[in-house]
Automatic annotation (TrEMBL):
Keywords: Membrane, Transmembrane, Transmembrane helix
Record organism: Pelodictyon phaeoclathratiforme (strain DSM 5477 / BU-1)
Protein name: Phage holin family protein
InterPro entries registered for this protein in UniProt: Phage_holin_4_2
Any Pfam family: Phage_holin_4_2
Transmembrane regions listed in the UniProt entry: 28-46, 53-77, 89-110
Length: 112
């Protein structure tokens, strides 16, 4: 049950982010649910590999390179899911920050 609630929270965060930021576009809430699923799978499979190989960059930039990784993964999800698009990499960075913030706030409200 916890996983389903977190999945819906992430879908709401993606949907809200698309309405907050002009450079991120989504067609429907169904697309947001699919984006949340794809992002969850990408974060479970691809992100650990990217983090491992980028440890030196993360250390040198004091963790700021994590924003680049998150933005890259968000753009990768946008390339896989129809109905979800990001105009450029700058919007992907902003989108990853806003999605993280909204997910954190909603997770705190639901005590997850």
């Amino acid at each position: 049950m916890h996983i389903l609630i977190q999945w819906l929270i992430n879908a709401c965060a993606v949907y809200a982010t698309a309405h907050i930021l002009d450079g991120i576009h989504i067609k429907s809430f169904g697309a947001a649910i699919l984006v949340a699923l794809v992002l969850g799978l990408i974060n479970a499979v691809v992100r650990p590999v990217l983090l491992f190989f980028s440890i030196p960059f993360i250390i040198v930039t004091l963790g700021l390179f994590l924003l680049v990784i998150n933005a890259f993964l968000l753009q990768f999800a946008a390339s896989l899911v129809g109905g979800f698009s990001i105009d450029n990499f700058g919007w992907a960075i902003a989108g990853s920050i806003v999605i993280s913030a909204i997910s954190w706030i909603l997770s705190s409200l639901f005590d997850l």
